[in-house]
Amino acid sequence: MRFKGPAHEPTHPLALRAAVPAERTVDAFVEEFLENLNYVQGVALPRSTINDQYLALAMTVRRYLMTDWMNTARRRRGAPSKMVGYLSAEYLLGRQLGNSLLAADLYDIAREAMNQCGISIDALRAQEVEPGLGNGGLGRLAACFVDSLATLDVPSIGYGIRYEYGMFRQTFVDGRQVERPDSWLFLGSPWEFPLPDRAVEIHFGGHTESTTQDGQEITRWLPAWNVQAIPYQLMVPGYRNGVANTLRLWSARATREFDLHIFNSGDYEEAVRAQTFAENITKVLYPEDSTPQGKELRLQQQYFFVAASLKDYIEQTLPDDFDLHNLPDQIIWQLNDTHPVIAIPELMRLLVDEYGLPWEEAWDITSRCFAYTCHTLLPEALEVWSVDILGRLLPRHLEIIYRINDEFLESVRERFPGDEDRVRRMSIIQENPRAVRMAYLATVVGTKVNGVAELHSQLLRDKVLPDFSEMWPEKFTNVTNGITPRRFLRLSNGRLSDLITETIGEGWETDLERLRELEPYADDAAFRQRFRDVKEANKHRLRDLLITRDNFALPQGQMIDVMVKRLHEYKRQMLKLLHIVTLYEGLSTGRLTPEQVTPRTFVFGAKAAPGYFMAKEIIALINAVGKTINADDRFNEILTVAFPANYNVTLAEKLIPAADLSEQISLAGKEASGTGNMKFALNGALTIGTDDGANVEIRQLVGDDNFFLFGMSEPEVAALGEQGYVPRSFYEGNDDLRRAIDLIASGAFTDRDGSKAWTVVGDLLNNDRFMVLADYASYIEAQGRVDAAYADYESWTRSAILNVARCGFFSSDRSMHDYMARIWGIGQG
Ligand code: 26Q
Predict the structure, then answer these.
(1) pTM score > 0.85 for this model?
(2) 565 noted as active-site residue
(3) Which of 118, 448, 459, 685 is the right S-S partner for 371, CB 3.0 to 4.6 Å?
C-alpha cells in the first residue's frame, strides 16, 4: 500500500509556507538550543547533563539543516531525473555533530553560542558515540560517497541497515582482544527520523506454486513468515550548498501477526520468542571483513534490506501511474559488493510475479538497472550462498536465479560451442558444494562491473572474472576510490586546512585538485616551518587524546609511524612487527647503537574478526612486543609501541593528521584499493608501501621521490607462487630476519606462555600465505631510506607538502564524477 499524505489540501497560510530556517545568529542559535534543552530534553540548563546538552545541540543543528532537506526533496520531486540508489549493507558514518556543523557552516556560531551558555562545544562533540555501522573500508567508502553525492547535488538515496549494534567495541585483556557490544543507541540518537508508519512487509521461507492461466505459467510464492521493515532516515548534508540527501536505514520489527499471536497464544513465552526472532534480523552487524561464513541470518539481513529498499522506491518514490518499462531511465542501483546482490532476483520477482510482466520484459528492465562494484581479490572473500539455505529462505528467488543461469549458460554455449569446461567455470551455480556465486550473478546481470583502483580493476578482469571479461569486455571498468576531504581534511585537520586556505584561498574543499597550487610552497622555507608547526600541534592533540582515552603517554619528538586498518594476514601487520623486533633485537644486543636508530613511535590500530584465530594471535603478539619494549628503560627515548584499542572513525580523525609515516604494506595483488592510504597522504604523511591497490596511483601522482616503495610487484608475487614459495629459505638466508623470529619464538615477549608466539611464527615459517618473509629484506631496506630521509627534515617536509598538493585526485567527488560518466549515465547533478 502506498503511503497517503494528508486527506485534504491545507488552507491555513502557515501550512502552505515554505520552511523557514532559523536565523543564523548566535542569539537565535542560543534560543533554539535552550528551547530544545527545555522542551525536548525537558531539563533546565543548570540541571542538564553533558548528554542533555549534546542532544539539544544536535537537535538545534538538525533544525537548521531541515529546511535544506525538505527543499531538496521538493525540488527533486518537481523535476524528476534519473537517480542513483546506493545499496550497501554498511555505512561507517563516524560522528555526525562536527560534520553537520561544518556542512551547515554553523561552527563558529555554535561555538560562541555554547560559550555563552558556559558549555564547551568540544566536550559535547566528545559525547557523541559514532554510528559504527560498518566493518572498515567498504563501509567508510559508502559514507564518503553519500557525502560527495550530496555535495555534488546528485539525485540519490542511500539504502542500508540500521543495526542496533554496530561494529563491536574492542578492549584488550592481557593484550588479547575482547569484544564488547557497541550500544550506539543507548544515550539517544538525535540524527535519525523513524518513520514507523511507512513500514513495509518483508516475507521469508515457505514454498512456490505454479499454475497455468490462459496458457501462461504463473508462479506464486507462498511465504511462511514475515517481518516489518521500519525506515529510519538520516540527513546527508552537502557541503554548504543548501542540499541534503537521504540515507534510509531499515530496522526489523515483528509484524502485527506476531503481536496478535502473542495476544491469543496460550504459549506466551514461545510467542515472545518468535517476536525476538523477527527483530534479530537487524540486531547486529557481522564483524567480518573478508571471509563470509554463509550464515542464514546474514542472508536474512541482505534480503531484508534490499527487498525493503526496492519496494520503498517503487511504491513511494515512483508516481502511481509509472510504467515500469521505463524503470532503467529512472534509477540505477549501485551494488556495494555482493552483499545486496539478492536485489537482482527480487526485482525480477516483483516485475514478473507481482506486476505481471512477461519474463523477457522483466529481464530487459532488470538487466539495465544494476551495476556492481567488487571490493576484493581474495577468492575466499567472494560470497557464495548454499542452495540449501537460499532455497529454504527464498525459494522463489532460487528458481529465478536458476532460470537466469540457464539462459545465461545457453548464451555461453552459443558463443563457445562445445566448451563445456567454460560453461562449468562460468555457471552462477557452483557444484560441490552447490551454491550460488553472487559475484557471477552480479556480473551477468549488471550493466557494469567495476574495481576500486586501476590495478584492482585490471586483476579483476584478468584473474577473478577472466571468462566474463572475455565475453563482455565493455562491461568492465575502473573507478578508483576516494575519500571526502570535508571529513578527512577540513574537519579532522583544522590547522592544516586553515594554512591551506590562507595560502591558496577558499574553495579547495569542493575542488580538491586546487591543492596543486600548494606545490610551489614546498620550496618556501617559511611555509615549510608553518607546515611543521601544524604537524607538531596535531601530535600534541593526539598526545592529549591518548592520555585521557587510553592512559598512554605518547613520547615527544619521535617520528609517528602508523599502521591502522583491519587486522588481516594479507595486510601484513606481522611485517611491521618484524621491523620493530629487528630494531629492538639490534639495540638489545648492541649490534645497533642508539644513534643509528631514528626515534619512532609505532602506532597500531586494528580490530580482528572475532572468529579469525590468527588475527587475534597477531594482536596479542603486537601487544606483548609493545609491553616489553615500552617497559625497557634503556630504549625509552628510541622505541615506543602504541596500540590504542577500538580503532574507529573517531580515532582515525585524530591519528591521521598526526602521522609522519603511513604503512601500506599489503602483499601486492591483495589490497583492492585501500582508502586509509589516501587519507594519510592528503594529511601530509609519507607512505611506505608496496605496489598494491591505490598505492600505485598515489605513487604515480606524488612521484617516486616522495614515496617509499618496496617489495615484490604483483607479477613477481605470482611468479614466486608458481615456482613454489619456501618461506623457511628466507628465514635461513637472512640473519636479521632469523634473529627477529628466533627472539619472538623464544618467548621473550610473552611473559606467560612462549608457545603462544609459535602459532604465528610457525605459520610464517611453514606457510606464510602472504609472503611476509619474502618481502622482509626489501622492507627493512626501505625503512632505512625512511630514516635517511627523515634525518633531513627540511626535505622530508618538502615531500610531505608535495603529497598534500598532489593528492587532490583522491577526493570522493572525483570518484562520483567517474561513476556518473562511466557507470550511471548521469550527466551532472
Ligand atoms: C560478507 C558476508 C558476511 C559477513 C560479512 C561480509 C563482509 C563484510 C564487509 C565482507 C567484506 C566486508 C568489507 C570489505 C572491505 O572493507 N573491503 C575493502 O573495501 C575498500 C573500499 O573499496 C578497499 O579500499 C579495500 O581494499 C577493501 O579491502
Answers:
(1) yes
(2) yes
(3) 448
